[in-house]
Amino acid sequence: MLRASITKNRILCGTSSTTRLSGTALRHVRLYSNDDISNPSSLAKSSNLPKIEQQLLKKPARQPKKKSPFLSSHAIENDPNYKMNSFLQSFGQSLIKIFNIDMDKSRAGPIAGSKYYGECKKQALYYPNEPLSESAKFYYETLNLPQSFSQWFQITALHYWILSVRMRALPFKYYRAYQQKLVDRFFRDMELRMSEEMGISSNRIIEGYLKEFNTQLLGSVLSYDEGLMTDDITLAAALWRNIFNGNPNADMRHIEALLGHVRQQLYVLNKMSDRQFGFGDFKFVEPNEVVKPLTKAQEVELRAAVKRNYENMDLPSQRSVLSLNE
């Protein structure tokens, strides 16, 4: 029954794309946010199984005591409308041109270490007495997962892995740069959150937590990779162990819904060119969304539209050797 159920979900949700590939894709892909096709959130809510709370801790999980800036207090990162003055822009463009700087490698920091990490971080981010985002509601309310720092880490690690799958398809030196920037920022941010938000003052305790989280990250990536290379049952088992904490009372429909949600992200990334991904043109599909798969003709038209978007990028800072075809 589990195999049949998951296979069905893969057809409905796993072979889907998203309009966020590019603005030009909007006319190619129909976005579903209702029950035309069961989206992961609706699929999980359709379960009639009783909720059985899992007692993982003997005492309540430590909760954030304060809220720090989402990424940092740096103006460039914290203000989406920040714009460098014209003199600094011209000076920077000149330096790039004179020294022939590899912008694809330089772009790894602001794209992977900032934008893509922000995408991962916000999926399950929560603060006491603040409303949850739609994605956070999916995990904490729909899937009935506990609100804790370790649970946030596991969900963030899952999204890190999803991005890392696409990064591996980049040319090797760029894959390593993007992956390293993303994982470095992940652990640096956890360190700051534990000290600033969770109120842990001991560096020794924080270091111990970071080592444990690093071990968990390596284990989860290995298990997800095994599922990616084998079948949905293996990937579902990895999600059950890591995201659902191996809960023997976990709702099978919830695991099925999360599996479909993950497969959606992987499909979207698979349809993106290296150039699009390297420039940060990706956002995770929301759990309450499903998109209709692209036809071959639509894929060809989408590629052409994307090329038109990038063909006018002729500034030194916009240079790239990443492919627009794959």
TrEMBL record:
InterPro entries: Ubiq_cyt_c_chap, Ubiqinol_cyt_c_chaperone_CPB3
Protein's recorded name: Protein Cbp3p, mitochondrial
GO biological process, one term: mitochondrial respiratory chain complex III assembly
Organism: [Candida] railenensis
Annotated Ubiquinol-cytochrome c chaperone domain residues: 141-284
Family matches, as Pfam families: Ubiq_cyt_C_chap (PF03981)
GO cellular component, one term: mitochondrion
Lineage of origin: Eukaryota, Fungi, Dikarya, Ascomycota, Saccharomycotina
Protein family (similarity comment): Belongs to the CBP3 family.
